[in-house]
């Protein structure tokens, strides 16, 4: 198949030249490789790998003819930035809970820059209320997903004591720094751009795979399967509602259950960390 031909699979037209499909697959594999190196080999090498990916995306986005594909590549640039910043934080004397807002600051800056440069409206990236009852219903799934993921990972708590002040403060940190920051980037921007190029179905799958890749560091394969399932649900909810409100709340609640609530519940009920 020539690189200029569009890819077909069982009657489904992806609508993307073959060389662009290969490029997307290559970046996904590169991110997976970089995460594997970071997790299992050497963090410095992983940092170098993510830096190379970022540089490649920058150059590639500037060279491709398609504006839509260039926008898609640009929307992927914050992903290696997440890891580059994250790998630098352990060098500082900062409590783990505060790592999240530090990573989120450049993430928000990059997302805003992408939105402005690509003329993405608030509606296009899902920054609308949508149908509020439905959004709140979606948000409640965070309680379930947080409990399930805790059963897989069993992390230590990110707060020293289970007090209302620390719990509320931690919740808002995780809601903004993980829920809003990640849903705006992955669903609002990346999935929107991906769907423009390869359609809703393939765009949903690709975005979910990229999102899952960034969780390789948790080591557990079961968690990767779970995260991919949750990412598919979040992406589907975004497609159907065109709002990231519900999934942002769900994401924030899920991480709060995972890191703030369940470690103490587990300790109180079972006496286990």
Compact description:
The chain is mainly α and 273 residues long.
Shape descriptor:
globular
Distance between the termini: 55 Å
Q: Can you tell me the number of structural domains?
A: 1
- H/E element order: EEHHHHHHHHH
The strands making up the biggest β-sheet line up spatially as 1-2
Radius of gyration: 19 Å
Please provide the count of β strands. Answer: 2
Can you walk through the features of this model?
- The chain is mostly helical and 273 residues long.
- It has one domain (6-270).
- It contains 9 helices and 2 strands.
- Strands 1-2 form a two-stranded antiparallel ribbon.
- α3 crosses α7 (164-213).
- The N and C termini lie far apart (55 Å).
- Residues 1-13 have low confidence and may be disordered.
Characteristic key phrases:
single chain; 273 residues; mainly alpha; two-stranded antiparallel ribbon; 9 helices; disordered N terminus
Strand and helix layout:
Blueprint: E1 6-9, E2 12-17, H1 18-41, H2 43-63, H3 67-76, H4 78-88, H5 99-117, H6 132-153, H7 164-213, H8 221-241, H9 245-270
Antiparallel strand pairs: 1-2
């Amino acid at each position: 198949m020539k690189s200029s031909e569009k890819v077909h699979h069982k009657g489904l037209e992806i609508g993307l030249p073959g060389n662009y499909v290969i490029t997307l697959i290559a970046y996904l594999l590169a991110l997976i490789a970089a995460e594997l190196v970071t997790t299992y080999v050497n963090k410095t090498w992983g940092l170098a790998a993510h830096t190379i990916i970022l540089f490649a995306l920058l150059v590639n986005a500037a060279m491709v003819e398609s504006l839509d594909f260039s926008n898609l590549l640009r929307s992927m640039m914050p992903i290696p930035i997440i890891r580059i910043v994250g790998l630098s934080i352990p060098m500082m004397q900062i409590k783990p809970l505060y790592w999240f807002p530090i990573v989120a600051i450049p993430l928000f800056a990059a997302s805003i820059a992408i939105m402005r440069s690509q003329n993405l409206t608030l509606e296009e990236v899902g920054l609308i209320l949508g149908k509020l009852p439905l959004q709140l219903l979606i948000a409640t799934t965070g309680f379930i997903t947080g409990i399930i993921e805790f059963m897989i990972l069993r992390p230590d708590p990110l707060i020293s004591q289970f007090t209302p002040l620390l719990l509320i403060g931690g919740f808002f940190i995780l809601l903004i720094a993980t829920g809003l920051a990640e849903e705006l980037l992955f669903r609002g921007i990346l999935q929107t751009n991906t769907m423009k190029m390869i359609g809703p179905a393939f765009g949903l799958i690709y975005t979910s795979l990229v999102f899952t890749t960034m969780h390789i560091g948790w080591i557990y394969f079961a968690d990767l399967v779970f995260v991919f399932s949750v990412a598919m649900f979040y992406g589907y909810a975004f497609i159907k509602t065109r709002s990231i409100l519900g999934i942002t709340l769900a994401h924030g609640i899920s991480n709060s259950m995972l890191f703030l609530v369940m470690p103490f519940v587990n300790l109180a009920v079972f006496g286990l960390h």
